[in-house]
Amino acid sequence: MLVAIAGCTIALPAAMSVPPALAAFAVPPTRPDLMIDLAPALQPPAGRRVFQAERLWELWRAGPEYQFVLHDHVRARQAASLTWADGWPRQAQLGLAAGLTARDVLVDYPLLQLLLMEYLADHGGAVLHACGVVSEGLGLAFAGPPGAGKSTTARLWHAAGAQVLSDDRVALRAGTPPKLLGTPWHS
């Protein structure tokens, strides 16, 4: 299945079950910006760690290759690895720990969000932790940490007739004018 989120077309692994929120972003066959294939095995971290997000995920680099490493702290193990070479379009290899599926790590973990953030960083955009609405042709983003009222803001704008793009994550693309776009990630 192909999905397009904020201008990034992603070819998901063939056998992946897709939740309705992500299926809403399905597009007809086209050349993807990112192809995600299942690797035969989980890959251990390689090279040097260049970033660590608390204990949930890390970014590693070995020469021209990059790797996201996701952790499962409930079971005290590495949950997944995604390896790719720099540049676009990109082909990535997803390795999974036993008992996990592509949906588990791409949708339920933050991996698909990380991939979109990386794409947008290279293509004039960003993912915001924000409620996004369109009212009278204007895109409005209300950013805030968990509990700040983003979902309440979305409900109020929806009741007032605005189009709600998302109550939790939106994408912002540079341009004249800039574009505010919905994502499949809602609270």
Produce the secondary structure layout.
Blueprint: E1 2-5, E2 8-11, H1 20-23, E3 34-38, E4 48-53, E5 57-62, E6 65-72, E7 77-85, E8 90-96, H2 102-108, H3 111-122, E9 125-135, E10 138-143, H4 150-159, E11 163-166, E12 169-173, E13 179-182
Parallel strand pairs: 2-3, 3-8
Antiparallel strand pairs: 1-2, 4-5, 5-6, 6-7, 7-8, 9-10, 9-11, 9-12, 12-13
What does this molecule look like?
There is one protein chain. With 187 residues, the protein is of the alpha+beta class. The chain contains four helices and 13 strands. It has helices spanning 20-23, 102-108, 111-122, 150-159, and strands at 2-5, 8-11, 34-38, 48-53, 57-62, 65-72, 77-85, 90-96, 125-135, 138-143, 163-166, 169-173, 179-182. It has an eight-stranded mixed β-sheet, covered by helices on one side. The longest helix has 12 residues, at 111-122. The chain is globular. The two termini are 24 Å apart. The model has no long low-confidence stretch (mean pLDDT 93).
Distance between the termini: 24 Å
Low-confidence stretches: none
- Major beta sheet, strand line-up: 1-2-3-8-7-6-5-4
The Rg value, from CA coordinates, equals 17 Å
